[in-house]
Amino acid sequence: MKAVIQTEFGAADKLTYTDIERPTIGENEVLIKASYTSVNYADIKKRLGNKGKGSFPLILGLDVAGIVEEVSPNSSFSKGERVIAFPKNGSYAEYVVANENLMFRIPDNLSFEKAATMPTVSILAYILLYEIGQVQKTDTIVIHSAAGGVGSMLVQLAKLAGVQKIIGTVGNRNKESYVRKLGADLVCTYEDFSEETLKQTNNKGADVIFDSVAGEVTSSSLECLALYGTLVQFGNSSGKAGSFKTSDVHSSCRNVKGFSLGTTRKHNPERLAAVAEKVLGLFASNKVSIPIAKVFNLKDAPEAHRLIESRHYEGKVLIKM
After folding, report:
1. What number does CATH give the domain 2-117+290-320?
2. Are 2-117+290-320 and 121-262 the same fold in CATH?
3. pLDDT per residue over 294-305, tens digit each?
4. Among 69, 84, 186, 247, which lies 20 to 30 A Cα-Cα from 195?
């Protein structure tokens, strides 16, 4: 089968389109004929070697949309079913293997292409909003990187939930209209969001802030986080660690919460099934969606990575098998 592999960490040109053996399944596993995979920023970090050691040859990719090709005995899935999944050894390949507890059926009225935009970013966004941030309708919230995949979903889900005020941040003002169309009430840059948030809340601050950027953005977030507010930290796309002092939280009764979808897939996958069903339903009923920035063929995976790294896109970047 065709796949994109890398044998060393480095730039996008380290991704090689080649032939490899089709994987085999074990107990409670399913072989999926892939239709699409999405490209996530985590793929970039892993390709560069920023997410720990790699076992080469390495196949990148967190999620897949495709058709069940082969199942293990007594499986709850059947050949021919349409699914999204989190494969166990990457998704930049024509065939992938996934554990059954990390697979979810696609509704009949939802296309593979639309389904492929959602697994990682939408399931993550739903958990962040409802379970980690526990956002209320009366809240003012700040969503960093609001034009990105998770940010796009957080804005839409918050709007759908009737959240009082949604403030999104962007690295480039050219993305402001896109974020407003998603449902944000105000769009700021990373330089001015803290001041604007305080202005919008009569110096009270935001009730919940979603931070996937870290670095200096974390410090600025704490400057405009309300008493009893929650800072939800779920990434560091800036490449820098965010920091805070214990005095930043205890006397103000504020919380800092962390969440990782990768950790949850590994250690508590059962938590994802109910969320996946809800999110798939929202996509199937067109209550939320993620615009597709561009679709690349599998052999053009390096170009897909370069587009992600440029940050000159809106929505999701997909790879078609």
Report:
1. 3.90.180.10
2. no
3. 999 999 999 999
4. 247
For residue 164, give the DSSP letter: S
Rounded Cα–Cα distance for residues 227 and 279 (Å): 31
Q: The tokens of 223 are what?
A: 């400057």
Question: Can you tell me the distance from the alpha carbon of 179 to that of 158, in angstroms, rounded to the nearest whole number?
Answer: 13
Q: Which two tokens stand for residue 65?
A: 């949309």
Question: Beta partners for 190?
Answer: none
Strands 140-143 and 165-170: parallel
Residue 142: how many CB atoms within 10 A of its CB?
Answer: 30
Helix (H) / strand (E) containing 5: strand 2-5
The residue among 125, 78, 121, 129 whose CA lies nearest residue 103 is 78
Q: By C-alpha distance, which of 106, 139, 138, 116 is closest to 35?
A: 116
Kind of pairing between the strands at 29-39 and 64-71 = antiparallel
Per-residue model confidence as pLDDT tens digits over 224-246? 999 999 999 998 887 788 888 88
CB of 293 within 8 A of CB of 308?
no
Taking the CB of residue 297, how many other CB atoms lie within 10 A of it?
12
**Cβ(173)–Cβ(190) below 8 Å:** no
Q: pLDDT band for position 56 (50/70/90)?
A: very high
Domain boundaries, the chain: 2-117+290-320, 121-262
CA distances from 142 to 156, 187, 215, 233, 256 (A): 13, 9, 16, 12, 14
Report domain 121-262's class: alpha beta
Strand partners, 57: none
User: pLDDT band at residue 247, thresholds of 50, 70 and 90?
Assistant: confident
